[in-house]
């Protein structure tokens, strides 16, 4: 949703009128009220520029992100081809094919029970292999922050 300057301007005017009325009721000098109004106007304009800029940036990001194609990882080879870290790539390449298959299925959103059925392993075996894989890949997670 974009920034609506007219609506923000009306809200600001209503707020200022209420504030100035309250100040006048409490005996604040008109010069001070004028100075406060000028300061608040500068702040309002600054905020307006920020919101307009933020909205433009959000639209740019949304449009740019929409243009990028998500690469669907279907095979273990696709998975390995998506790895950017050379060390991680070689670490995964050294793994057993069944562990890579479990990893791929987990990335694709399969549950542990479904993975066990697809790989013809017990659920405990799947859990155990995933646990070993997590321990093995922990240094890479720590590097990423």
How would you describe what is shown here?
The protein contains seven helices and no strands. It has about 140 residues and is mostly helical. Helix 1 runs antiparallel to helix 2 (about 30-65) and helix 6 crosses helix 7 (about 125-145). The radius of gyration is 29 Å and the shape is rod-shaped. It starts with a helix and ends with a helix. The model has no long low-confidence stretch (mean pLDDT about 80).
Low-confidence regions: none
Query: What structural category arises from helix and sheet content?
Result: mainly alpha
Q: What can be said about the biggest beta sheet?
A: none
Strand content: under 5%
Order of helices and strands: HHHHHHH
Q: What number is the mean pLDDT?
A: 82
Described by the principal axes of the CA atoms, the overall outline is rod-shaped
H/I helix tally: 7
Radius of gyration from the alpha-carbon trace, in angstroms: 29 Å
Number of strands: 0
Report the span from N to C terminus.
Answer: 33 Å
Oligomeric state as shown: single chain
Share in helix: over 70%
């Amino acid at each position: 949703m974009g920034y609506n300057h007219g609506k923000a301007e009306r809200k600001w005017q209503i707020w200022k009128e209420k504030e100035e009325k309250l100040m006048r009721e409490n005996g604040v000098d008109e010069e001070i009220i004028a100075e406060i109004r000028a300061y608040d106007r500068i702040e309002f304009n600054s905020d307006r520029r920020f919101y307009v800029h933020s909205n433009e940036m959000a639209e740019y990001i949304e449009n740019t992100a929409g243009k990028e194609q998500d690469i669907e990882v279907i095979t273990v080879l696709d998975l390995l081809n998506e790895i950017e870290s050379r060390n991680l790539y070689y670490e995964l390449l050294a793994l057993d094919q069944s562990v890579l298959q479990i990893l791929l299925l987990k990335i694709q959103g399969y549950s542990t029970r479904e993975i066990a059925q697809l790989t013809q392993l017990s659920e405990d075996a799947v859990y155990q292999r995933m646990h070993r894989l997590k321990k093995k890949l922990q240094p890479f997670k720590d590097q990423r922050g």
